[in-house]
Amino acid sequence: MATTITVCETCKCAGWNAETTPKTDGETLAELIEAAAGDVDDVSVRRHACLMGCDFACNIAVQSNGKLNYVLGKFSPTTLDAESIVAYAKLHANSEKGQVPYREWPQAIKGHFRARLPVLDND
Ligand code: FES
Predict the structure, then answer these.
(1) 72 alpha carbon to ligand 1 midpoint, in Å?
(2) Which of 12, 41, 45, 67 has the smallest C-beta neighbourhood within 10 Å, fewest atoms?
(3) How would you label 61-72 residue by residue, b for 16+ Cβ within 10 Å and e otherwise?
(4) Which atom from ligand 1 is nearest to the alpha carbon of 73?
(5) pLDDT per residue as tens digits for the range 4-33
(6) Phi then psi dihedrals of residue 26, to 5 deg
(7) Which domains, and CATH codes, for the chain?
(8) Atom 2 (ligand 1): residue with closest C-alpha?
């Protein structure tokens, strides 16, 4: 089952300055994630405004029907974070129920989980 990465495109990390930075940190992270996910099977990317975790920018969600879903935050708009998010999403897509063993998590994912959401009964 495919996994979708939802990227908050309005996130701004501490110190973001609209006068010196034309894009939000969320927009930059979204571009990097989209590039990293370009050729990856079973992982798609979409953007959304404010995931209501603004104090923990940059925020993303990892979602798939019938699986555990996750909200992660405190990312930076860097290639390392983007590639690690995509690598985790691929592991999530390959998992049966959305549980990826901790030993398989990319290092840059660790410490970023904000919430785990159980499967809806009608999924
Ligand atoms: S602006 Fe990204 S969570 Fe609110």
Answers:
(1) 12
(2) 41
(3) bbbbeebbbbbb
(4) 3
(5) 999 999 999 999 999 999 999 999 999 999
(6) -65, -40
(7) 3-117 (3.40.30.10)
(8) 11
